[in-house]
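# nightly structure sweep
# worker-07 picked up a monomer target from the shared queue
# config: single-sequence mode, recycle default, output format = C-alpha cells
# input follows
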Amino acid sequence: MDEKNKMYTTLIVAGVATTALVSGIYMADFNSDTIWSANTSAAKNSMSPEELEAFLGSEKDDEFVNTEWNNDEEMVIDEQTLELMPSVEEELTQKEIEENNVESTGSTESSEIPAEVNLEVTFFPQAPDADWSLPWKEACEESSIIQAYYYVQGKTLTKDIFREEILSIVETQKKILWKYIDTSMQETAEFLRAQYGYGDYEIIDNPSIDDMKQHLAQGHPIVAPFAGKKLWNSFFTNGGPRYHVLVIVGYNDGFFITNDVGTSRGENFAYSYETIMDAMHDLVPVWEGDITDGEKRILVLK
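# output follows
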C-alpha cells in the first residue's frame, strides 16, 4: 500500500473512532438519570415519543403513556406568596382548635361566658303584703313569671302592679287550666302566653349548668321548678313546700343567684350549683308519684 493510501486509511479509522466515541457519549447522556432534566429538554423536544422510546431501548409497560410531552409550564410562586401561606403545623393547629370547639359547643364559634352574671330582675315575694293565705301562698309560679316577663320587656314593676298581676293571672289560669295551684312548666308557659301574648320562651329538658349560664349571660332569666324541701332553705316554714318555683337571675363561682319568691329574704338568694341541679324537678301531682320523680326542666324567657 502506498503512502497516500495509508494516510487515507488512517484518517478514515480515526474518523470512525471519533464518531463512535461521540455517539457513545451522546447515548450515555440520554440513558442517564438526568434524561428528564432541563439539560436535555432541547433534545427530547426534537424527538417524538416513539423515537425517544426506540432510541433509549428501554422496556416499557404496555400501558405506559408518556404524559410529559404536553405538560404546561410549571407554576411559579413568588416568595411573598409563600410567606403568606400557612405552614402544615399552623393548619393542623387551627383544625384542632375548630374540632375542639365543635365537640364542646356544636359550633366553631367561641363559647366563652362571663365569670359572673346578675340580672337586675325586680324582686317581690309572692306574698307582697306578708299575707300567706290563698292565693298568695300558692302564687310562686305567677310571681316568678311576672318578674321574669317584666324584666325581658324592660317594664317597671312596682309592688302595686305586682299584686294586681298575680290576681289577674290567677283568673287567667282558672279559665284556661281550670286551676291555679301548682302548674308544670308547660302549664306555666301556657298562662304566660295567654296572659301576655308572649311566645319568646323555651322549655329545656335536662339542662346543664353551662346551658343555664349561657342563657343568663345572654340576659335570659330562667323560671325553674323544684322539690321545695330539697332546696334546704332555712327561711322556709316546715322545711319548705312540696313543689316550688323561683327565678334564676345569675351565677357566680359555684352558685346560682335567684329571686326566691317563697321568702321575703329571697332577693339575690344564692343556691349552690349542686343544690339547684339536685332539687330541680318539674311537677308530679301527688296522686301520680313523688315530686322527685319529676323531670329536670326549665322555662327560659328571651
